[in-house]
Design brief:
Elements: H1 15-22, E1 40-46, H2 53-63, E2 69-75, H3 82-90, E3 96-100, H4 107-116, E4 122-125, H5 137-145, E5 150-154, H6 168-185, E6 197-200, H7 201-207, H8 218-226, E7 232-236, H9 253-265, H10 272-297, H11 303-326, H12 335-363, H13 369-392
Parallel strand pairs: 1-2, 1-4, 2-3, 5-7
Antiparallel strand pairs: 4-6, 5-6
Helix pairs in contact: 9-10, 10-11, 11-12, 12-13
Bound molecules: guanosine-5'-diphosphate-alpha-D-mannose and manganese (II) ion (MN).
Residues 45-47, 49, 74-76, 105-107, 110, 127-129, 131, 193-196, 216, 239, 247-249 line the site of guanosine-5'-diphosphate-alpha-D-mannose.
């Protein structure tokens, strides 16, 4: 849209034009570039990255000469004030934006929201920590211009490398995850775990509702949902060391990843977090049986007491593992850990009353015991999950 001041409607004051007139041409005020719609939006998810923001913007400016670009930082209310830093720059530069999300955490969800906030025809996703090599962005953009729908920046294509930026264990995990992924999405992409890619925005707009949007692997999510219809190309790069701050991803991301695969296998019916909660619940059954055995043979308890003991041990186990794993982005510490634990005991007790109630009701229709029992157990699990997500590990 070109702004033509002669045809401006009198009651509509155009803020862009106003600012352009008002801005003195001093070095303290960056030059005011006539506004053009962005051709490319760079979406940068951030969590505790305040030291990296200004440097990234500077590097994007260096690398993207000749392309009208904008950058959107999608920050999950980082306690270090990342969004304040990003908005301070955004207040001076129209091509910098920041979405501050509150009460939510998650890399994939942040990327999708950033993409959907764009009106540019092409979007890229890259990390804030300068591990991704911004100098390849023009090559990626050219590949889109040449007809690709999706361009993946790959650490594993010829000329790429991951060894600088990943610890040996993360590197091994990443390779295993890639191998597993190829069983489901084929091997048209050498690095489906990449957090660095460029895509035509309308592809994401079209499939947005089918994306899981949970966990860390947004590219994998997109490839699974839309991959077979896309023209895909790759550009190799060297995954660099992180500049400032620390990685938010630990070896536990493996579980999120497996959760994403299962969730995708259910056609997205079962959310990733519910599957993880369920897996923890299954591990709780094993813990229960071991505790029961221990209470009866070593502590010589009577069965009813031993069973009560085992229930308490299993519930505590489930709470502890869910706090470390399933809900680690909202992990409870200090006294909130203990109030959370008490609430969890309460929720599980109510859940088990519901479980027995439903099972007995179904059994009364002459269903076999295992069908009735399983339905009751499932209903108890759904109840516990709902309370856990809504009340116990609610994100602030
Ligand atoms: N908004 C938001 N919310 N951003 C997040 C969150 C979150 O919960 N967690 C991490 N981020 C941001 C970080 O601030 C960083 O900009 C980016 O996501 C990647 O996080 P890192 O903690 O630096 O991850 P990594 O370097 O270990 O792994 C990254 O690179 C790999 C290789 O490309 C990720 O992008 C992986 O998915 C990727 O496989
Ligand atoms: Mn990183």
């Amino acid at each position: 849209m070109q702004i033509d001041s002669q045809h401006e409607c009198p009651e509509f004051r155009n803020p862009v034009a106003d600012r352009r007139e008002a801005a003195p041409a001093s070095p303290a005020h960056p030059r005011q570039i006539p506004w053009h719609p962005a051709e490319l939006t760079i979406v940068v998810p951030t969590y505790r990255e305040r030291e990296n923001i200004a440097e990234l913007v500077r590097r994007l400016d260096d690398s993207l000469q000749g392309i009208v670009w904008e950058v959107v930082f999608v920050d999950d209310d980082s306690p270090d004030g990342t969004s304040v830093v990003a908005k301070t720059i955004a207040a001076r530069e129209g091509r910098v934006r920041c979405i501050r999300r509150v009460g939510r955490r998650g890399l994939s969800g942040a990327c999708i929201e950033g993409i959907l906030s764009s009106a540019a025809p092409v979007v890229a996703v890259m990390d804030a920590d300068l591990q991704h090599d911004e100098t390849i962005l023009p090559h990626m953009y050219r590949a889109i211009r040449d007809g690709s729908d999706l361009v993946v920046a790959s650490r594993y294509a010829g000329g790429g490398s991951a060894s600088e930026g990943l610890s040996p264990i993360r590197k091994w995990g990443s390779e295993q995850a890639t191998r597993l992924a190829s069983r489901f999405i084929g091997d048209q992409v050498s690095d489906p775990m990449s957090g660095f890619f460029m895509i035509k925005r309308d592809v994401v707009e079209k499939h947005a509702v089918s994306l899981a949007g949970e966990g860390y692997k947004v590219l994998m999510d997109i490839l699974w949902t839309a991959g077979k219809d896309l023209r895909i190309s790759e550009v190799s790069y060297r995954f660099r060391e992180r500049q400032a701050g620390e990685s938010k991803l630990d070896t536990l991301v493996t579980f999120d990843y497996l959760g994403l695969l299962f969730s995708k296998l259910t056609g997205g019916v079962l959310p990733v977090r519910f599957l993880m909660f369920g897996a923890v619940g299954l591990s709780g059954i094993v813990v229960h049986l071991l505790a029961l055995q221990y209470a009866m043979t070593i502590l010589h308890m009577r069965f009813a007491w031993a069973q009560f003991f085992a229930v308490m041990v299993a519930m505590t186990w489930n709470f502890f593992v869910n706090n470390r794993l399933t809900y680690r982005d909202a992990r409870l510490t200090g006294w909130r850990f203990f109030t959370g634990l008490l609430l969890f005991y309460l929720a599980c007790s109510i859940g088990s009353i519901g479980n027995v109630g439903v099972a007995s009701w179904i059994y009364s229709f002459h269903a076999t015991a295992w069908v009735a029992g399983l339905t009751g157990a499932l209903m108890g699990a759904v109840f516990n999950y709902a309370i856990s997500s809504a009340l116990i590990w609610k994100r602030k």
